[in-house]
Amino acid sequence: MNARGGSLSREVRRERAVPPRPGVPGGGLLVVGDVVTDVVARHRGPLAAGTDTAAAVRTLPGGAGANVACWAAYRGCADIRLLGRVGADSAAWHERELTAAGVRPRLVIDPKAPTATVICLVDTAASAERTFLTDSGASLRLGPGDWSDALLDGVRRLHLSGYLFFSGSGRALVAVAVAAARARGVPVSVDPASAGFLALLGVDRFLELVEGVDVLLPNRAEACLLTGLPDPVDAAAKLSRHVPLVVTKQGADGALVAHSGAVRSRVPAAPADPLDTTGAGDAFTGAFLAALLAGAEAEQAAAEGCGAGALAVGRVGGRPPSPSL
Hints:
Blueprint: E1 28-32, E2 36-43, E3 56-62, H1 64-74, E4 80-87, H2 91-100, E5 104-110, E6 116-123, E7 130-135, E8 155-161, H3 168-184, E9 188-191, H4 195-201, H5 203-209, E10 215-216, H6 220-227, H7 232-239, E11 245-249, E12 255-259, E13 262-267, H8 280-293, H9 298-313
Parallel strand pairs: 1-4, 1-8, 2-6, 4-5, 8-9, 9-10, 10-11
Antiparallel strand pairs: 2-3, 6-7, 11-12, 12-13
Helix pairs in contact: 1-8, 6-7, 8-9
């Protein structure tokens, strides 16, 4: 849907990599968030300032919101939709990539801003740690004018990418979308997305903005930042007094599931051979939400998330394998 006239979106039927399980609940998942062009540069060791550093460089589709949608489709969500904003420069490419992944994109073409671009610097040492340089471009301009309550028709869960919270128009969209979802009884999840941007926004402001959200999916750094507590178990417990269900992603340490002010389970990580950690948290979130929609309890959904995260770190970029693989 393009509120400014015209739409790239079209619906196609295709097989999913993991078909929905029969006899369990289903329903649509709507993701609202960022669509990004990732330029992934994989280098070994420290960057050489003032001269060349050898690297393997690839341009790939990405974005936290788009990645979550693709992983949810890959893990069996039969109806996954994405609302995002892109520039005309790469809109057709992003639509093709999303559609091929089993996502029904609703891409608003921004007349003034290019598609968001992120430079992902990935150290190919054992940790495969990454550093992002972010130009938010058109995604920063996603706002209430791009929303329609009809987007929630047939939707059983709404997921909001945390990058929405870091612009004025995005925060206004969050308020509209959460209110519309609550009016229909649709649960809402949020992935905070970036500890760096959270620190700039302010913890109190973010917690105020997620009032009414049902599920929060921070990573360890984000959970500790949001609570001021150094221990992720304590942080998850404290956050679950603010949001009903908190699932803290801990990478190689698995995940914590907390509700009602206490950590209720610790989910171990799946074995992984890290190549690139870009998008691992998005993979967790997408698989977790797909599992919830299929009727799983939070602990089982977190285990599904850990499995997807392990798969993600063994690949370059933030998207799942092609459904045909």
